[in-house]
């Protein structure tokens, strides 16, 4: 709901908001440019009387003196019957240059205020300001939800791509945009009479003036009492009319000055409403607050990027939520399918189930598990299809499911069935699905069918499960789904570095180049030259006998120009053995699987990287990409510094150029006889301090190491009254475990 509240105005208004914000950013420059060219005497240095006296010496027929919010002084005068206006130097009264408002800024202002369309355009700009207000407020709520609460709003963000860029920039710009939107809405509402405007009541013309011989303007007492900094305008009396007066407006109010006695007559302070109104204009335009104008301008310039990334996110979400043409609303559905997925393969199965159930007449609603509603009023069947990630953890689209389950109010008639997707080679086969099954039963829901687990996307297991569900609900589903094979990438080994033979841990860093498809094949969709990937994504490799693919964490990003992995040869490892035997020039077929849940946060908070053995691969990749020199600390364990110190030269270079802040290694077959978790224990207080300062922890390596690390970190965190699970829920403890 909140997301819709944020997305719909954004989509609708995207293009117009871009025009509004770019023109706003240009206009925001005006106060700063004006200010830069203005001569501004210090406070108390020049009085209005002195200023007027100096100006009159150069412009005997002065009609009016105006001081702009930026501090420029303009004189309006007549000479030889011709009216003119000049910028003047307040210290000398001399003219600097003829004054005229800029045609360019005038044009931009028209575009900004009214899209060149008069009142219709002004109304549109007002509506857009309201949209912007809704976007800012709903965006702040979404950000708080993403960072795990308002107190964590400044916490480093995880994730990548458009979502990350959108959230990071929005966080930077939101206060400026909120201020512009609020003040813009206020000004539009006043313009269209929806809010009252402060009445412009000036002082009444004095009933009596002395009518005596006019004194020189520089000698008038009332003008001598006003500092130039407070002047708005001074209108001169009509020449030769002793009954006329000077009309003075200052930042505090307005009044009249007798041209003979110099007395202040009928002074009226500015009404409170006018002061507020003036502040609102200043806060919107930066008039008189040139520095604020620049901040608002910078925030406005971010709007085009927010619009483009916002539309990209919406589009990606639409696509990944699976082109479900007949998706029924949650409130009307009799059947609900919830999907937990990280790499999107489970969505394909969910789509097939959605289509089959729809075909036999059910009203089916399908969404990600994170979008679990509080209530499905009409539903009597709930299917949960979910994969498992990390070490038995929730995939990205289900991470908030368990927390949302607390507020879930299932109707009495609701029954459920969980279908887990996983890989039997993982010790925690489909563990998250099992957890969900238990949690739903714990909520008092009845099982429509007991949990089943699908191994490595087996389509036959899926189809059999469909048959059983069909029998239970009294109709044939005929689930027949064949996932498309992922786009394959041909790689050629260009370089390898071998380690660890003498300590029975043969491990190699393998660097491949992407083999470009020649001839017509390069035009086939999917045969892209270089796929996009980041360190921490996964390289899928199918071993030669065609069994299920094995995944290796990537140590490089596409921009590095190589595909780099770190492979430890397992004793009877089919795929690791195959890769280990490769020689430069050999080619393999592979595919990329994105793993956006395993990425270091950006920002100045420390990042603690922990790994052992080949687990150093993606961690080294993160350090290589740390161009902004965020504090990164690496804890890594191997067997022997002489034999399997992977990436030793690179890490030295990263320390030198500060991409890596500190390196802590430990070797189990040296005198230390210790593992990486022992090293963490030794560094207990430093680790605790870093976590207390907002550090994020990323762990990569074998499951035993990960379990040991988790145990030690839990102990280290005890005095902080938090633990690994709490950090994990905040996106501050990420694991890539195999
Ligand atoms: C990094 C990683 C960790 C995984 N961890 C587990 C796990 O702990 N248990 C399991 O059964 N499957 C695990 N899997 C396998 C996935 O659950 C399986 O490939 C699933 O089909 C992915 O579906 P999805 O693309 O919809 O997320 C893991 C896969 C990867 C790439």
Automatic annotation (TrEMBL):
Q: What are the protein's UniProt keywords?
A: Electron transport, Flavoprotein, FMN, Membrane, Transmembrane, Transmembrane helix, Transport
ATP-binding found in the keyword field: no
Q: What is its EC number?
A: 1.6.2.4
Positions of the FAD-binding FR-type domain:
486-601
Sequence ranges assigned to domain Flavodoxin-like in this UniProt record: 335-470
Please tell me whether the keyword Glycoprotein is annotated for this protein. Answer: no
In which domain of life is the source organism classified?
Answer: Bacteria
Q: What class of enzyme is it?
A: oxidoreductase
Q: Under the cellular component aspect of Gene Ontology, which terms does the record hold?
A: cytosol
GO MF annotation, one: oxidoreductase activity, acting on NAD(P)H, quinone or similar compound as acceptor
Q: Which residues cross the membrane?
A: 123-144, 165-187, 289-315
Pfam families for this protein: Flavodoxin_1, NAD_binding_1, PepSY_TM
State what protein this is by name. NADPH--hemoprotein reductase
């Amino acid at each position: 709901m909140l997301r819709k509240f944020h997305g719909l105005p954004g989509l609708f208004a995207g293009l117009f908001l871009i025009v509004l914000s770019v023109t706003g950013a240009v206009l925001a420059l005006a106060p700063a440019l004006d200010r830069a060219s203005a001569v501004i005497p210090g406070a108390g240095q020049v009085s209005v009387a002195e200023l007027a006296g100096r100006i009159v010496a150069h412009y005997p027929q002065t009609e009016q003196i105006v001081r702009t919010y930026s501090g420029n002084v303009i004189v309006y005068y007549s000479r030889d019957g011709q009216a003119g206006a000049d910028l003047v130097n307040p210290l000398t009264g001399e003219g600097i240059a003829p004054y005229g408002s800029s045609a360019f800024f005038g044009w931009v202002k028209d575009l900004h205020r009214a899209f060149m369309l008069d009142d219709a355009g002004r109304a549109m700009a007002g509506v857009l300001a309201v949209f912007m207000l809704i976007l800012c407020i709903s965006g702040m709520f979404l950000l708080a939800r993403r960072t795990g609460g308002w107190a964590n709003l400044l916490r480093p963000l995880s994730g990548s791509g458009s979502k990350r860029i959108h959230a990071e920039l929005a966080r930077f710009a939101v206060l400026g945009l909120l201020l512009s939107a609020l003040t813009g809405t206020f000004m539009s509402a006043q313009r269209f009479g929806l809010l009252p405007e402060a009445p412009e009541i000036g002082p009444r013309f004095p009933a009596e003036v002395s009518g005596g011989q006019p004194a020189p303007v520089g000698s008038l007492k009332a003008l001598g009492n006003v500092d130039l900094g407070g002047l708005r305008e001074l209108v001169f009396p009509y020449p030769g009319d002793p009954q006329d007066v000077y009309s003075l407006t200052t930042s505090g109010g307005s009044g009249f000055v007798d041209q003979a006695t110099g007395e202040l007559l009928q002074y009226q302070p500015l009404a409170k409403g006018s002061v507020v109104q003036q502040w609102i204009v200043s806060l919107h335009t930066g008039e008189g607050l040139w520095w604020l104008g620049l901040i608002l301008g910078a925030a406005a310039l971010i709007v085009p990027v927010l619009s483009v990334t916002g539309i990209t996110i919406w589009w990606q979400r639409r696509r990944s939520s699976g082109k479900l043409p007949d998706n029924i609303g949650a409130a009307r559905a009799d059947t609900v399918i919830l999907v937990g997925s990280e790499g999107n393969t489970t969505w394909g199965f969910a789509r097939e189930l959605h289509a089959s159930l729809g075909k036999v007449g059910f009203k089916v609603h399908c969404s990600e598990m994170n979008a679990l509603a509080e209530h499905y009023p009409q539903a009597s069947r709930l299917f949960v299809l979910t994969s498992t990630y990390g070490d038995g953890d929730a995939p990205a689209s289900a991470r908030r499911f368990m927390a949302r389950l607390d507020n879930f109010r299932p109707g009495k008639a609701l029954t459920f069935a969980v279908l887990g997707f996983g890989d039997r080679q993982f010790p925690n086969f489909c563990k998250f699905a099992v957890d969900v099954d238990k949690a739903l039963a714990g909520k008092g829901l009845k099982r429509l069918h007991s949990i089943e687990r699908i191994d490595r996307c087996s389509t036959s297991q899926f189809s059999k499960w469909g048959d059983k569900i069909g029998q239970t609900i009294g109709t044939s589903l005929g689930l027949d789904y064949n996932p498309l094979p992922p786009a394959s990438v041909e790689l050629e080994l260009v370089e390898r570095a071998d380690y660890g033979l003498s300590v029975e841990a043969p491990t190699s860093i393998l660097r491949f180049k992407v083999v470009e498809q020649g001839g017509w094949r390069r035009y086939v969709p999917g045969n892209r030259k270089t796929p996009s990937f980041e360190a921490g994504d996964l390289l899928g490799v199918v071993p030669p006998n065609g069994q299920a693919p094995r995944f290796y964490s990537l140590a490089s990003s596409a921009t590095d120009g190589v595909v780099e992995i770190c492979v430890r040869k397992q004793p009877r490892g089919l795929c690791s053995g195959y890769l280990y035997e490769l020689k430069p020039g050999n080619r393999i077929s592979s595919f990329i699987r994105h793993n956006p849940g395993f990425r270091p946060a950006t920002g100045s908070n420390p990042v603690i990287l922990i790994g052992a053995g080949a687990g150093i691969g993606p961690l080294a990749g993160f350090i290589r990409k740390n161009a902004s020199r965020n504090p990164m600390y690496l804890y890594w364990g191997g067997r022997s510094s002489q034999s399997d110190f992977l990436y030793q030269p690179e890490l030295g270079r990263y320390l030198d150029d500060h991409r890596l802040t500190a390196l802590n290694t430990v070797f189990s077959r040296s005198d230390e006889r210790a593992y990486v978790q022992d090293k963490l224990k030794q560094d207990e207080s430093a680790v605790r301090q870093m976590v207390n300062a907002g550090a994020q922890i990323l762990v990569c390596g074998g499951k035993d190491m990960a379990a040991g690390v988790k145990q030690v970190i839990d102990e280290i965190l005890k005095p902080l009254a938090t633990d690994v699970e709490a950090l994990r829920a905040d996106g501050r403890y990420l694991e890539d475990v195999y």
